[in-house]
Structures are given as C-alpha cells and as structure tokens.
Design a protein that fits this description.
Length: 305
Amino acid sequence: MNPVVIALFPVFGVIALGWVLRRSGLVAAPLWGGINRLSYQALMPAFLFITISRADYASVPAGSFMLAAAGGFIAMGVIMLAFRLLPMPGPVYTSLFQGGVRWNGFVLLALAPAAFGEEGAALAALAFAPTVPLVNVMCVAVMTVWGKSDHAPNLTRVGIRLVTNPIIIGCLAGLAANFAGVFQSGPGADTLDLAGRASLPLILLTIGAGLDFTSLRARPGLISLSVTAKLLIAPAVFYALGLLFGVEGVALAVLVGIGATPGAAAAYVLAREMGGDAEMMAGHVTATTLLAAITMPIWIAIAAL
C-alpha cells in the first residue's frame, strides 16, 4: 500500500475520533474552545520552534521551496480573484476566495514525519513562516472589500494580530535558533519538544470536533466549486511552480502536499468576524477535510513520479 495512504490513516483516524468525542458528549462542548487555544497558542508554536531549530536545511533546497510555496499561494489568490466575475453576493465570494487560498498545514505536519521523514517534516514546518502572514493578508484584504460587516474592520488590530501570531513567532524564533546554533538541546529544548508533541493530536481532535455535516447543504454548488479549487486546482498550481523553480524529490512532494491540504477552520472564524458566508465556509472545511483523505495521496504520488 502507498506509504502516504498508510501515514494518513492515523491522521484522519484522530480527526474522526474528535468528531465522535464531540457528538457523544464525552468531551463537553465548552471545553473544545480551550483545547483549541492551548494547541494553537502554546503547544504548536513550541512544536514548530523545535522542529525548525533542529532541522538541517543546508542539505535541502529550502530557498527554492519557499519561493515556490509563496508563489503558489499568490497564484491561487489571482485565480480566485477571477471567480469574482461569477454572479454572487460579495460576502459569498469572500468565502469562495478563502476556500481556494487557505490551507490546513496541521494535517500536513501530522502526515510529514511518516510520509516524508525528518527532511519533509522540517520543510512542512518551515512553510508556515512566510505563508501564514501572506495568506492572512490576502484574505483580510478580500474580506475588507467584499465582506459585509456592521462595523469597519480595524486594520491596526488585524496587523497586530498578525505580528503577534504565536505560530509565526514560533517559526521565526526557530529559524533564529537554527542559524545561531543555540537552544537545540538541553532541558529547556527538551521541555518544548515534549510539550510540542501534544499539539498535533489535540489539533487533529479539534478539527474533527469542528466538522459540521449540516453545513454541506449551504450553497452546495459554490461549495463544490471551492472544493475543486482547493483539492484539484491548488495542488496542480503548486506542482507546476515546483517544477518551474527546480524543486524535486521530497521537497516537491511536500510542496504539492501543501497545495493538497484541506481548508482551514480559521477561514470560518474570519468569515464570521468580517462578514463572509460562515455557513458556506463551514461546509467547505468539512467537505475538503473528508475528501482530502482521497486526493492528498494521489497528488503526492504524482509529485513523487
């Protein structure tokens, strides 16, 4: 069996477990918000810091990989802007845009060690540093123009939120430690390593807990279009840019994996805050999370040819 498929089984198994835990009530609904905040704001930054700080980027094409990754998201932004020509309300369009651009990198992070080894895991973690602010800036800009909100967006607050994003801080601090050759071993680093290991299973559980199957009935035609953009068009764009920038081997497989990831729950939060179609966004995240279990192995296998 394909090693990527084998590696995906536990990843999507934990996602399914999260859905079961929420539906069964074994984990009370109010607790999921706290689990989510703990994972994103404390444990995941620690995981990214340790992974990046200890990685050997001298032996991988990190520069071309990062350029191709950033270029992939910019290209998808341009493609999704073209969809504005279709007749639809502005708030609905913003959710379509987010659906094609946002990525759930945590699924790839959970998959990477088993599917790609240490080199692939290090590249997957490294991709967060430039792409998280880039994608957020694009999405906030589109929401500002076409979203529907009772109050004007506070762009200063959005900027502060980006600068103080724990994920970005963890990545940048990890890069600084990597270049300086410090904080890669010892009790402090080992503590962060141990804490960081808890992040991925908890995040996968929260992804599963957030699945909303009733939202699939909201604008099924447009959800289908956003799913096509995310799971078919985006991986092809990242693959083409990888070839253009000379990315190959494991790095190319990880790059295509970035494009093939499902939609991110953060898109739902932004749609709710800035006047997008939150229900459609929830449907997109649910549909892409389910279908990515099928499409991700196919795209990664194509990249490995």
